[in-house]
Amino acid sequence: MRIAVIGAVLLVALAACSSGPQASAPGPEVLGPDGLRGLAPGVTKAATGTTLAAEPMSGFDGCKSYSFAGSPAPEPGALEAEERAVAKADDLNRKARDADAHVLDPGMHGSAADYAKSAAQSAAAAKLSAQAAAAAVVVTELREERAADLAASGGAVFSGEKLWSVVAPPQVKTPEGAGAGTALADLHRLYDAKGLKPTPEGHFAVAVPGRPTWTYDFTAEGAKVTYVALLDASLKCG
């Protein structure tokens, strides 16, 4: 009889535990007015702690891009490769402009030798221009690769010490549910009434409620959003 009573008490206790308050599962991460993972508007690089990787993955135009901690490390020498590519493109552009500015103009009464010299100079300037254009393509491709890498992992971009942009990982959406994979038709449905506009860079941007100067910046390819960032439009790189 005693064993039966003890068993009944245990069953009551278990039932009480199972009917008590349960810990709710955390909801999905959201890129909203308060940023993401502690990266909020106004935060400085020094205040990010261990949220981001220790080393930057890119440094175009003086801004440093950092992926979230735990993401794949950047390729060794990535920053140096960027610097070399940009320096080469800048040098070739300067040389091309200088060569073009010094092409001889023989005028109406120029000699045959003058015309030959002018033609040679024009050809040399054109060659430098072509080389500069090819170098610029390399820089553009590097920019796109770095942007794609950051979009794949998520992270942040800093202009000096100031937070310029928080890039959402692919699974993270805005409070309205827009992010990587969202159809452009749905993006317009969600944000047109809130002032969604195209940007000079070919993205789409809309103001963030309660955050003057900050916008949600949507990059798109084809008919879908590829990634979304929280961006301070008052800051610039370069």
Overview of this structure, please?
The chain is α+β, with helices and mostly antiparallel strands. The protein folds into two domains: 44-165; 168-233, no CATH class. Helix content is 39%, strand content 16%. It is built from four helices and seven strands; from the N terminus they run H-E-H-H-E-E-H-E-E-E-E. It has helices at 2-19, 78-101, 112-153, 184-191, and strands at 63-67, 155-159, 162-167, 197-198, 204-207, 214-221, 224-232. Strands 1-2-3-7-6-5-4 form a seven-stranded antiparallel β-sheet. Strand 6 and strand 7 (224-232) form a beta hairpin. The protein is elongated, with a radius of gyration of 28 Å. Residues 1-20 have low confidence and may be disordered.
Give a brief outline of the structure.
The protein is of the alpha+beta class and 238 residues long. It is built from 4 helices and 7 strands.
List the defining traits of the structure above.
238 residues, alpha+beta, 7-stranded antiparallel β-sheet, 4 helices, 7 strands, elongated, disordered N terminus
DSSP helical segment count? 4
Strand sequence of the main sheet, in spatial order?
1-2-3-7-6-5-4
Strand content: 15-25%
Number of self-contained structural domains: 2
Reported for the largest beta sheet, the result is: 7 strands, antiparallel
- Radius of gyration, whole Å: 28 Å
